[in-house]
């Protein structure tokens, strides 16, 4: 639940008011969940960096956006542990 919560909150924070989409598909052995925001997007050069602890794309929004900067890092670690 922490994983889905972090993904949804992260996506919702960056939509610019345009909303998010949550899609899922699964069977008895696996589930695929996709959380997509309808914001302006992330440049290719920053995609890998967003998983680094405390990294923020727009540093000027750090205080207003709230959060610790660990949401996506936490998500990645949860996924790595689940998939072992």
UniProtKB/TrEMBL annotation:
Where it sits in the cell: the answer is: Membrane
Q: GO CC annotations?
A: plasma membrane
Q: Name one GO molecular function term.
A: phosphorelay sensor kinase activity
Keywords, alphabetical: Kinase, Phosphoprotein, Transferase, Two-component regulatory system
Q: Where is the Histidine kinase domain?
A: 1-79
Give the main localization category. membrane
| Gene3D superfamilies, A to Z | Histidine kinase-like ATPase, C-terminal domain
**InterPro entries listed in its UniProt record:** BphY/WalK/GraS-like, HATPase_C_sf, HATPase_dom, His_kinase_dom, Sig_transdc_His_kin-like_C
Tell me which EC number(s) this protein carries.
2.7.13.3
Q: Could you list the residue ranges forming a coiled coil in this record?
A: none
The domain of life for this entry's organism is Bacteria
Q: Please report a single Pfam family linked to this protein.
A: HATPase_c
List GO BP terms, alphabetically: cellular response to phosphate starvation
Q: What class of enzyme is it?
A: transferase
**Which reactions are catalysed by this chain?**
ATP + protein L-histidine = ADP + protein N-phospho-L-histidine
Q: What is this protein's name?
A: histidine kinase
In which organism is this protein found? Subdoligranulum variabile DSM 15176
